Amino acid sequence: MSILQMLSHNAATDEDARTLLRTGKYHKNLRTAQNVLIANDITKLIAGENASQKDKENNALLRAFIAQRTVLANRWLNLAHRSAKDRLLSVAEWRIAFWTTLGIELEVGKISCKHCNAENVQIFEHAECCPKSRRRTNTDGKLVYPRRSTILHTHLMKTMTHHFRMIPDLTLSSLNTKITDVFQPNPENPPTIAANRTEAAKEKGDLMYSLAYGNIQEEMLLDHTVAGIHSVANKQFTINEDGYTSSLPNHAEHKKDLKHDHYLHDGKAYGLAMDSAGGTSKSTDKIFNLFYGKGTANNPRNWNSESMRIALKKNFLDTMSCVIMKHRVRDYTKLGIPNARMRGQQQPYAQGGALNINIVNNIGEYAQLVAAV
To answer: Domain ranges in the chain?
Structure first.
């Protein structure tokens, strides 16, 4: 509103407006507004004219594009200049990640999945949901099918513990913490008795941390989850009525809160929820900002320097985004793209066949322009 008011009076040419604009404070806001407008236009282009709410929810490309509009989702691009080891993506994987982020399908139309025998499925959507594409042979020679969410969850937990270890006043108390060892059951809403392994897992959190600085000491249980944007059960939460935002991470966080309500945790149990494209919930943002915060004037944190704090937080968020993108790329490579022969003739994307994919655009002139570049 401040920008609009300045521009409405002589195009912000008076001395006061020029002084404000010269500080650079509003430049970022102008760029942000422009980026939002462009993203909204692309959203409308993907959704199509006169699309109903149900049509939008069933549009896999639209769900993915809205999910990756969050702050964390595309931070992996910040590490494009780094080595494959640092960014967790090989050159071939980075190309797949880039095209996927632009909303360009690696294969158009419907297919039959050779892994799970599902018929008439869209690769862009099915790659994340296929229950058998990640098959592997365990040590005793038995063929197993790990769940995508379990593998991603484990990878994210390792990333968090590695980076949180560098925070000077944060201490890891325990891993895979049993909630009953930390909090008493809520007599008004007691937990259900665990009848099997699945139910027993619901009684556990992930990371127990102690944050101590100045005269502040906080104990907190972090319980992490990742919700798939292409899961049938989650479709209704991926696109809000405004058509531009998603409530899926907050919905996943709410499910964790319902679990924690069975215990008297006094607000010390946090559901850290993300969606499979990198969207984060309110509690997730709160915890990340708390861990990498400055503290207060009376209770400053124990950072060696402000530049150290900023650098560690940036590296953490960039790496978390890389982990999520790594698994989004695996969705395709595990399904057989781009190495499997698709319908029709493959076309080499890079000279020498470094990556062979048949790129087909389906989001109009925008995708055509990007493909031409």
So the answer is: 143-325
